[in-house]
Specification:
Blueprint: E1 6-10, E2 13-21, E3 38-45, E4 65-69, E5 72-78, E6 86-96, E7 101-104, E8 111-112, E9 120-124, E10 145-148, H1 150-154, H2 163-168, H3 171-177, E11 181-184, E12 188-189, E13 203-207, H4 209-212, H5 222-234, E14 238-243, E15 247-248, H6 259-262, E16 283-284, H7 290-306, E17 311-314, H8 329-340, H9 343-348, E18 351-353, H10 362-369, E19 374-377, H11 378-390, H12 397-401, E20 412-415, H13 425-429, H14 438-447, E21 451-455, H15 481-484, H16 491-509, E22 530-532, E23 537-545, E24 551-559, E25 565-570, E26 575-578, E27 585-588, E28 592-598
Parallel strand pairs: 10-11, 10-21, 11-14, 14-17, 17-18, 18-19, 19-20, 20-21
Antiparallel strand pairs: 1-2, 2-5, 3-6, 4-5, 6-7, 6-9, 8-9, 12-13, 15-16, 22-23, 23-24, 25-28, 26-27
């Protein structure tokens, strides 16, 4: 429903449509909240000069009519003329019953406006293209994800162009690396237009203006995202959207912030905003109310249907997960989205939770109870940080490496050794002079159960420190392609990139490495499998079937030690074994190779 509101463009005409729920009309809309107490709404913008008036003049701006809607009220104004091609910005000017007045943006706008005013927008003319679905969608277990922060990824690449275009020009890079899914950090519009990670949304149906704006082609904004997704899908690369649905940036100043707060005379009466599970970030969406459930569901389906997004990563789901009631919050949201998809999409679409209870392993049980596919697996990252710093493993290492354990059938973790929320792995290892310490972490990442994810720049040893709290966290961390990326002749970047390419290719080629099988499970085995903490050494066995049904087995030996060492390596079968990283072969007898050199 909500996707049909906003500035609705048909040819060169536009109809402005704004919905407000009313529980006296539809009691399911909200149990907490009240009336907006609106007297009149006018729509003002830079189109007003074409009506014979002055642009942005609220006194001469056309008034919207109020019409009944099955769930409340619909305010509407149809512009009575054809508009020339271009990009237009607008905002609602609201007069309340007490004669107070306020500027409000459009909560269902498909475009964010320029600058700090948080205008809404629409485009007349320009290019459009239907977004094509990926031809052979893969389940999450067959994906290797690339976490991409659009601003940082393109800072050295985009010049004066739109960042989204610069990402499209790097599709060959993703293919060369071998990843087959890109998880973009939030692209939905945030306040002010300055740098942001995007976790402070104000317009959920709109792409952030700075990402899609090219002054040379002002009407071609959404077209840029459409082209990017098509370019990725044409290479078999899936697109995962990072969705922030726990909270909004409601703002503390009237005229700015989440519109569905400020469209109410008393913002506390907004049924969209209210305490739910105590998320602690900005202002919470109140999932007790039906209007919130419908709004967020419609946002998700808009991106999945209109832009063929393949899956969604749900940010901070702890803030809207109610363990005692699976009929509200994230559990209800994922179930509603799945119910709306075709059986074919439902079978493969990944729904990934960033679920962060104090005991991170509890996220597995919560994921099993929700209709989600997966959750982020923080334990591997924090363990890898310690392993590369200290050169040894810890007592819980075997459980961490067996990342798929305890997940229900069909569910699995998203594993990573670095993400946007923390310092880079190379920084934790001691800096780029110790880039080689990232190698065992890369091997673990690509050989453990789960769907591995690489944070942008991790693959060529990008090094940034990030404070764990405070305002300094959300700062630009531009990728330094020219001096560190592949082709830069930087030894650390080139060698680590080559290793990631090789490891991803191995994982893509061998289904057994994408299965959940792992040995030993509950402790070291007498034959020599397990974790040897002080030596920084792990030896584990993976197995499964090839695509033709034939069995395949893998023996993984990885050392985090600062020193080379010799070790006896157990094997599950005698015969010839091939070293997939180095291209060598070895003949195993008595189920063991003895006195094997293991590099640091």
């Amino acid at each position: 429903m909500y996707e049909s509101f906003g500035a609705v463009v048909t040819g060169s005409r536009v109809s402005f449509q704004l919905f407000l729920p009313e529980n006296t009309v539809d009691p399911t809309q909200y149990v907490r909240g009240g009336s907006p107490r609106i007297r009149i709404i006018r729509v003002a913008g830079d189109f007003q000069a074409l009506l014979g008036g002055e642009s942005w003049d609220p006194l001469t701006a056309p008034a919207m009519s109020r019409q009944p809607h099955p769930s409340g009220w619909l305010y509407r104004y149809d512009l009575p003329l054809d508009l020339p091609e271009g990009f237009y910005e607008y905002k609602y000017f609201v007069t309340f019953e007490d004669d107070s007045r306020r500027w409000c943006s459009d909560p269902c706008s498909k475009y964010g406006g320029s600058g700090e005013h948080e205008n809404a927008g629409f485009a007349i003319g320009g290019n459009r293209v239907d977004v094509r679905p990926v031809q052979r969608p893969k389940p999450l277990q067959d994906l290797t994800l690339y976490e991409l922060m659009i601003d940082d990824f393109t800072a050295e690449l985009r010049g004066d162009g739109a960042p989204i275009d610069a990402v499209r020009q790097r599709v060959d890079y993703f293919e060369r690396l071998g990843v087959n899914a890109v998880e973009m950090m939030p692209w939905t519009a945030w306040p002010g237009g300055d740098f942001s990670w995007g976790y402070d949304p104000v317009q959920f149906f709109a792409v952030e203006y700075r990402y899609i704006n090219d002054p040379a082609e002002p009407a071609d904004k959404l077209y840029r995202l459409q082209r990017l997704i098509n370019a990725l899908h044409d290479r078999g690369i899936h697109v995962v959207m990072d969705g922030v649905f726990n909270h909004v940036r409601a703002g503390i100043t009237p005229n700015q912030g989440f519109p569905y707060r400020w469209l109410y005379l008393n913002p506390a009466d907004s049924p969209y905003i209210g305490d739910f599970e105590g998320g602690g970030f900005f202002e919470e969406l109140d999932y007790q109310n039906g209007c919130v459930r419908e709004f967020v569901r419609d946002v998700c389906l808009y991106w999945m249907n209109a832009f063929q997004v393949d899956g969604i990563r749900f940010d901070y789901t702890r803030g809207y997960y109610r363990r005692t009631d699976l009929h509200v919050g994230i559990a209800r949201l994922v179930a509603d989205i799945r119910d709306a998809l075709s059986p074919e999409r439902r079978a493969v679409a990944p729904f990934i939770l960033e679920h962060l209870p104090d005991n991170r392993f509890e996220a597995i049980d919560d994921t099993n109870r929700i209709c989600a596919t997966s959750c982020w697996f923080d334990p591997l990252m924090f363990a890898a940080f310690a392993w590369v710093r200290e050169g040894k493993l810890h007592g819980d290492a075997l459980r961490v490496l067996d990342a798929g354990r305890d997940f229900a059938p069909g569910k699995l973790p998203v594993t990573y050794v670095e993400n946007h929320d923390h310092s880079s792995l190379v920084h934790e290892a001691g800096g780029r002079d110790r880039w080689y310490k990232a190698q065992p972490a890369a091997i673990v990442l690509m050989t453990c159960p789960g769907a591995p994810m690489i944070h942008n720049g991790q693959e060529f040893a990008e090094d940034y420190w990030l404070p764990e709290s405070g305002p300094g966290r959300v700062e630009p961390r531009p990728l330094r392609w020219a001096t560190r990326g592949p082709g830069s002749l930087d030894p650390a970047g080139e060698r680590l990139f080559e290793l990631y390419c090789k490891l991803i290719a191995i994982r893509n080629e061998h289904p057994a490495l994408r299965a959940a099988n792992f040995f030993p499970r509950y402790g070291n085995h007498p034959d020599g499998y397990g974790v040897f903490a002080e030596r920084g050494l792990a030896i584990y066995h993976r197995w499964g079937e090839r695509e033709d049904g034939a069995p395949e087995r893998f023996l993984v030996v990885v050392s985090f030690s600062d020193f080379d060492q010799m070790a006896d390596i157990p094997f599950p079968a005698n015969g010839e074994w091939r070293d997939l990283l180095n291209g060598e072969t070895a003949t195993v007898t008595d189920y063991k190779l003895r006195w094997v050199w293991v590099g640091s």
